[in-house]
Amino acid sequence: MTAPIYLSVVVPVYNEEEVLESLYKRLTKVCDDLGKPFEIIFTNDGSKDRSSEILKEFHNRRPHQIRVIEFSGNFGQHMAIMAAFERVRGEVIINLDADLQNPPEEIPHLLEKYQQGYDYVGSIRDIRQDSFFFRSLPSKFMNWVRRMVTGTRITDQGCMMRAYSRRIVELMSQCHESSTFVTVLGYSFATNPTEIRIRHDARTEGESKYGIYKLVRVTFDLFTSFSMAPLHIFTVFGFFVSSLSGLLVVYLLLRRLFIGPEVEGVFTLFAIAFFLISVAIAGIGIMGEYIGRIYQVVRSRPRYLIREIIEDLSEPQVSSVNKRTAK
Ligand code: UDP
Ligand code: MG
Residue span of the signal peptide, if any (predicted)? Predict the structure, then answer.
């Protein structure tokens, strides 16, 4: 009988050929040093570069510890993580980005906190090493909006490097939503969550896969998955504006009766009308975001497609280095 796996590390990969080798070296070193059985699951999210071949090669180097899920297209970081979460064997699951912005050396710190009895160890990026105007500032703003809208007390929702208990990951795997936000979904199942500060390095190779548009899409996923607040805001605003416009109609009627016909204020009315029309269009858009997601769920198509899984589940083991030192 082989020892059960203690740690599963989950890494989504999308066009990361430049960083994979140094990620492999640093990650396997950290995991080896733990001295406990572990597995690393890479999900290749439809990369168009050499990532796929590199990951296969990693599996050949350590067939019992490295598993590779090959998607047949680009289904997004959160789906890549969920596909791995559905297959983990470890007692603790740690997720990190492939680009080395989440240093693998922080894994022992997350585990240390986990062992103190927390079932969800979140993370706060110590220094944001991204460009201030294009990533840090929007990300700070998004974090604030997300906290307000979703009502979760996660300080830094965008930092994916976190530790989850197996129980949480199993519950997450039972949710078959096609658009979700992993960190918040996990938090919603946690019974004893906590957060620690972790280092955040600059991306040295490759570039961010998130432009402003993708960032906005992901934020919509987050709002619609965890909150109805955008809809409530529109309802409340709608009632408020209808009451105001009711008063305006009465006021204009009275002026018509007592002062007579007048053309003044026509442009103000235009401005008000344009404003309200644009608000209505935004409202329809927000409703559409929800309806689109309901449609996706109703169609119940698979939320991601796997081309191939490269794994050897026969023998989970501690690395040979540790076997030797353990004796
Ligand atoms: N990623 C992915 N699919 C995507 C976009 C990104 O699997 O469609 C992975 C990417 O390879 C990386 C992680 O998600 O491991 C975070 O992406 P990135 O570093 O580009 O995001 P940022 O750090 O800029 O928020
Ligand atoms: Mg990154």
Answer: none
- The dihedrals phi and psi of 195, each to the nearest 5 degrees, come to -135, 145
Which pLDDT tens digit goes with each residue over 70-81?
A: 999 999 999 999
How many of the other CB atoms lie within 10 Å of CB of 267? 9
Ligand 1: which residue has its CA nearest to atom 24? 208
At residue 177, what are phi and psi to the nearest 5 degrees? Answer: -70, 140
196: β partners? 123
Atom of ligand 1 nearest to the CA of 14: 11
pLDDT tens for residues 239-274? 898 888 889 888 888 988 898 888 777 777 888 888
Name the closest ligand to CA 210.
Answer: 1
Q: Which residues line the pocket of ligand 1, CB cutoff 6 A?
A: 12-14, 16, 45, 74, 76-77, 80, 97-99, 101, 208-210
Q: Locate 229 and state its tokens.
A: 């607040």
Distance CA 12, CA 84 (A): 9
Q: What is the position in ligand 1's atom list of the atom closest to the CA of 46?
A: 3
User: Which whole-number Å values give the CA distances from 23 to 39, 78, 100, 129, 236, in the listed order?
Assistant: 15, 20, 6, 18, 49
Atom of ligand 1 nearest to the CA of 139: 25
Closest protein CA for atom 19 of ligand 1? 208
